[in-house]
Design brief:
With 544 residues, this protein is of the alpha/beta class. The chain contains 18 helices and 16 strands. Strand 11 and strand 12 form a beta hairpin.
Length: 544
């Protein structure tokens, strides 16, 4: 059978410019460089780095990339057309763009006559001159130009003739790409497809198919259709897709490349990045979320932790037989993995499947399997939540099987918080009594709050017996009130996330006393970390 190469589609990432306009997102120069290099590894052809001249951070960012360039991606500067009634050659903003030293420049200009008259306070003719002059000047300086037609779809709806004139001005001046922007994010997929087809037809008639610039798409998510709109544009003939990692961006965000790339490549057959690079998509998504200090969207399509999680017993049973029953792609294709979620809705299939993820083979006839399921449902009726605390479930499972190793025993603890002149201080003191290897250890430690103090005291008591504890850290702490009508007597669920630098795990505690719930989760977090270390040592020994 003859195979044909997949049609090429160009990805353009604007996480470092448009994405950083998201409310609550802030990055340093070092952050931007780390993200740029990760996107370069992911195979993104165009990476928009920012607007040099708009702020010192972006100037330094481009300078550093001149010293240590990316491996394969084109780094792109971003700017507007020149100001009304000036010359592009005299525009300081454009001099900063040239100094950045990039081969490609993205210029945005006004497509909507409303923005020209109300925003720029100039004439429609002057706006066309601004587009022509800016693109011509950059081309004369040896730069290749991507023209972003801002507010394209709104402009085309209100005054199609003028909107097309703005594209013609950019084309005639030498722009190599014309990118149609749904800047307000209010257009729907069927409209996007129709407009893109009309534009391609018009441009082809004017320039001829051999000389026409290529068309791109840039969509925002204000109507929750950014990804669908970008897909509609591609199916109508667009050859460049602009978006951001995790959909970061102003207001409701931009088109999410983490959804677009697998849809384009796995569903529509376009060539965007290599198969190996696609396998890194989930890791890249989480890397960027960590660098920008935003929690990953656990329910994000393709790359979210829950994207291939199965909770209902019927689902789990079916997936165990054939994953195609409830999965539209193989999770490994995008670097994700299948998860069997444990909860009160679980059946034996969930327990058996989850046990296998910990290397434990059970069957439905094993008495321990039903014991685990019974205990699971009993605890979840009390307020425990194991779907978010897999480490606690693992310990529950080992206990039912008689294989839970007791590394230490906490025999008691006290936590003291000072009040000074009626004002709560940040300092807390915790005292713990721990039994280890037949010895009782009494230790105290201070912390920034009672949970931090308790965690520090436990570590201090145990580290001489288990030095690996020095690598453990408490990375997240979440509290939820389970029955708010009970006021201060309400039952509290605490989730504690711990890590050792290479792995992370979550444990759960439940009690009407928030400190008791926290103590349980913290203790199990230390216990599970020690279990992982012990299992790793056994694996090393067995491989020798």
């Amino acid at each position: 059978m003859t195979t044909h190469p997949s049609p090429q589609l160009w990805l353009y990432d604007t996480t470092l410019r448009d994405g950083t306009q998201r409310e609550g997102l802030s990055v340093s120069i070092e952050d931007k460089l780390r993200i740029a290099r990760r996107l370069d590894q992911l195979g993104i052809p165009f990476i928009e780095g920012g607007w040099p001249g708009a702020n010192p951070k972006d100037v330094q960012f481009f300078w550093q990339l001149q010293e240590d360039p990316l491996k394969q991606a084109e780094i792109v500067t971003f700017c507007s057309t020149r100001r009304p009634n000036t010359n592009a050659a005299d525009e300081p903003m454009l001099q900063a763009i040239l100094t950045a030293g990039t081969r490609w420049v993205t210029v945005f200009g006004k497509s909507w006559d409303l923005h020209v008259t109300e925003g720029l306070k100039t004439t429609l003719a002057e706006n066309l001159a601004m587009i022509r002059d800016t693109v011509e000047y950059l081309r004369s300086q040896g730069r290749q130009v991507i023209y972003d037609a801002e507010h394209w779809f709104d402009g085309y709806k209100h005054n199609p003739d003028y909107a097309l004139q703005t594209l013609a001005a950019a084309m005639a001046s030498g722009a190599e790409w014309l990118v149609l922007c749904d800047t307000n994010g209010g257009t729907l997929p069927h409209e996007v497809g129709q407009v893109v087809e009309s534009v391609i037809s018009h441009v082809s008639l004017v320039n001829g198919p051999q000389q026409m610039p290529q068309i791109g798409i840039h969509t925002h998510n204000d109507s929750d259709t950014a990804v669908a709109n970008a897909l509609a544009a591609v199916m109508a003939g667009a050859k460049m897709v602009q978006g951001t990692i995790n959909g970061y961006g102003e207001r409701c965000g931009n088109a999410n490349l983490c959804s677009l790339v697998p849809n384009l490549q796995l569903k529509l057959g376009y060539s965007c990045i290599t198969e190996h690079q696609l396998n890194q998509l989930t890791e890249a998504s989480r890397f960027v979320s960590e660098v920008v200090n935003l929690a990953p969207d656990e329910h994000a399509p393709f790359v979210g932790r829950s994207a291939f999680a199965h909770k209902g017993g019927i689902h789990v049973s079916a997936v165990e037989r054939n994953p195609l029953t409830y999965e539209h792609i193989q999770p490994e294709q995008v670097g994700n993995r299948r998860r069997i979620v444990i909860s009160e809705q679980s059946g034996l299939s969930n327990v058996l499947a989850k046990a296998r993820t910990f290397g434990i083979e059970l069957d439905k006839q094993t008495p321990a399997a039903r014991q685990i399921l019974h205990r699971l449902k009993e605890l979840e009726s009390e307020g425990y939540q194991f779907e978010a605390a897999e480490a606690s479930f693992a310990l529950l499972m080992y206990e039912a099987l008689g294989g839970r190793q007791q590394f230490f025993e906490v025999k008691g603890f006290q936590v003291h918080c000072d009040l000074v002149e009626g004002k709560e201080t940040n300092n807390a003191l915790a005292t713990v009594k721990v039994g280890v290897s037949g010895k009782n250890i009494l230790e105290a430690a201070e912390g920034n709050g009672p949970v931090a103090a308790l965690d520090a005291a436990l570590r201090k008591a145990l580290v001489n017996f288990y030095p690996q504890i020095a690598t453990f850290e408490l990375t997240d702490y979440k509290v939820r009130i389970l029955d708010g009508h009970a006021g201060t007597a309400a039952k509290t669920r605490v989730l504690v996330e711990s890590g050792n630098g290479s792995q992370r795990w979550t444990t759960v505690g439940v009690s009407p006393n928030i400190l008791a719930a926290s103590y349980q989760a913290v203790v199990e977090g230390l216990e599970y970390g020690l279990l992982l270390h012990a299992q790793a040592e056994v694996a090393v020994e067995s491989s020798r």
